Prior knowledge:
With 108 residues, this protein is α+β, with helices and mostly antiparallel strands. Helices cover 31% and strands 9% of the residues.
Amino acid sequence: MTVQIADSGQASPLGTAGETDYGDIVITYHGKSATTRSTGAGEILPLLYELAGVRSPAPSTTGPDEPGHPLVADASNSAIWFFGIEPFAFAAAWWLAAGNRRIRWHRS
């Protein structure tokens, strides 16, 4: 494996280099090569299998290879909090603070 860090030269104010191949990942295996900018397994692994001339393995039927990834959370009950409890709590806090005469309100 060879890692070549691109010479950034002069960077722009946004921090990106001016070269057109900046950020490219070139994978070479047995004389074949592929280029990508992605570092995710969903893009890199198929490229590696293609370069090696091997079929990618079939997904496991017993469950995900990485349990808990991607995280799929059930947010169906969150509407109760955001549209019911939270606005009521803010309104109640405002009402209690506005009705409390110990807090001095300066009106102009």
